[in-house]
Write a structure and sequence with these properties.
With about 60 residues, the protein is α+β, with helices and mostly antiparallel strands. The chain has one helix and five strands; from the N terminus they run E-E-E-E-E-H.
Length: about 60
């Protein structure tokens, strides 16, 4: 899960596997595979880095054993 900040300042965790699209319009809009839309404070680039770090952590744990 990646931790994000909603447009209203509330922090939450999101499963990146649910992300269909991330756009900056100029607000950052995340569209989920369920068609739900979430506005967040992070930029698209920040979200991309969070997802990469999340995936690296998962793969590191898989190959650790």
């Amino acid at each position: 899960m990646v931790e994000l900040t909603a447009i209203n300042g509330a922090r939450f965790f999101l499963n990146p596997d649910l992300i269909y699209r991330v756009e900056e319009t100029p607000d950052t809009v995340i569209t989920l595979t369920t068609e739900k839309v979430i506005l967040v404070q992070e930029s698209a680039e920040q979200i991309n880095h969070l997802i990469i770090a999340y995936r690296r952590k998962i793969f590191a744990q898989l190959f650790k054993h």
